[in-house]
Design a protein that fits this description.
Protein-Tyrosine Phosphatase, Chain A, UDP-N-acetylmuramoyl-L-alanine:D-glutamate ligase, globular, nine-stranded mixed β-sheet, about 450 residues, 3 domains, alpha/beta, 20 strands, Rossmann fold
Length: about 450
Amino acid sequence: MLPASDHYTGKHIAVLGLGRSGLAAARLARRLGAAVTALDTGCSDSLSQQADLLEAEGVHCLLGDAALACTDHFDLAVLSPAIDPSWPLAQLMLRSATPAISEIEFAFRHTSVPCIAITGTNGKTTTTSLIAAALSASGLRTVPCGNFGVAFAGLVLDDAPMDVYTLEVSSFQLELIESFRPRVSVWMNFAEDHLDRHPDMEAYYRAKARIFENQTAEDTAVINAIGTYPELKARRVTFSAWTDAADWTLRDGWICLHGERILAMQSTRLRGRHNAENLMAALAACHAWGLPLAELADALRGIPAPRHRCEPAGTVKGVEFINDSKATNVHAMESALRGMESPVVLIAGGKEKGLDYRPLAPLVAEKATAIFTIGEIGPRLADLWQEAAPCTVCSSLGDAVRGALAAASPGQAVLFAPGTSSFDMFTGYDHRGDSFIQTVQQLDQAP
C-alpha cells in the first residue's frame, strides 16, 4: 500500500531524466508529498511536452543548459536508468553530496508487494514475459515491469492490486540500489555488453551482481549453472541447456528437473537452446514461488515466441527471413547463429559499442554463406569477417535485405541478428525489427 501523501512533506527531490522511468518517479515523489524538480539535459519538442505535463501536476522542470546550471539543494536524487552516474547531470548531485538512488530502489521503498527480479545479458525480457504469463495463468496478479513493460514506479504510483511484481532489471537500474531485495532473483547469463556505459567488464558484472546483495536465506537465487557468482545468502537453484551439472537441464528435447521430465520443448512455441534456458528459468522461478510444476508446464506450452527474438518475418521466393533484432550484443548474436540448423545469409551491424566480434569469426565462417552489414559498426564487421564469408557494407537496412535475398538460395534463411544496439539508425530494437519485417513484406509484394 502506498504511504500517506505527506510522507515526504518538506523534502525536495530531484528526478534525473524524463524518460518513462523518470516521469513515473517524478509523479510518485509528488504523490508522496515532496517538492519535485525534474532535470534533463535534452531539449527536444517531445521532452518539452513531457515537461509541460509535469509542470501542470506541480513538478518543476529544467531542461537543457538550465538543468546543468541548477544550484538548488535536494534531499534525494532519483536517477532514471538512462542517466549514467558519470555524466555531468549526475555529477552535479554527487558534488553537492545529494544521496542518489535508482528509480527501482525508490519504487521498492514504497511498496509492500514482493517481487521476482530477472537480470542477465540476454534472455531477460523473454524470461520476464514467461514468468508473468505463468504467474497470471496460475491466478496471481502481476504484470511485467521495470526495464521491460511498465515503469516500476508507475505501478507503485497506481497502487493497483498486485500479488507479485515481475520485474526485469538492467545493470543500469541496479547500480544505485540500497535496500532492493527480490524474493526470487533470476540470473540468465553474463557476456560482454554495455561497454559504452560501464568502464569495463568487471564494473558491468558488479552492477548486475547487486541483484543478490540484499537477499537472505529465505529467498531464492535462480542462476545459470555456467557462471561465476559472488557469495550468495539465498537458496541456489541452477539451470543450463549445455551441461547436466544443474538442477534444471535439457535432455533429449525435454526440460528436466533433477532428471525428471517436466516439459517437452516440442510442445512449446519456442525453439533453440537459448529459449530452453528461458523456459527453465521461468519454471524454476515460479516453482520457487510455490506453484505446481504441472500447472506451470501447461501454462508455458501456449505462450507465443517473443517479438524480435528469432521471429519468423516471412518467406520470399523460397527464402525465409528471421528477425532477431533483439540480438543487441555479441552473445545474443552467437546464440542466434548456433540455433540455425543450416547455413544462413547474415545481416548484422548497428551502433558502435566497443564490443569484440573477433571470437565469432569461426562460427560466422561455419554458419554464414554471405554477410551484409549496416550502421556505424558495419565497415568494422565487414573487415573482421571478410575471410569468413563474402561481406557487403550497406548504407541502409533496406539495401541489406534486398542484397541478402539476392545472395540466398531457395530454401535458405536470412538471419537478421545485428549483434549490437540500434540507436545509430533507429529508436530501439523494436523499431529496427519492425522496419526489417516491413521491408520483407514489401519484397513479398513486389512484382
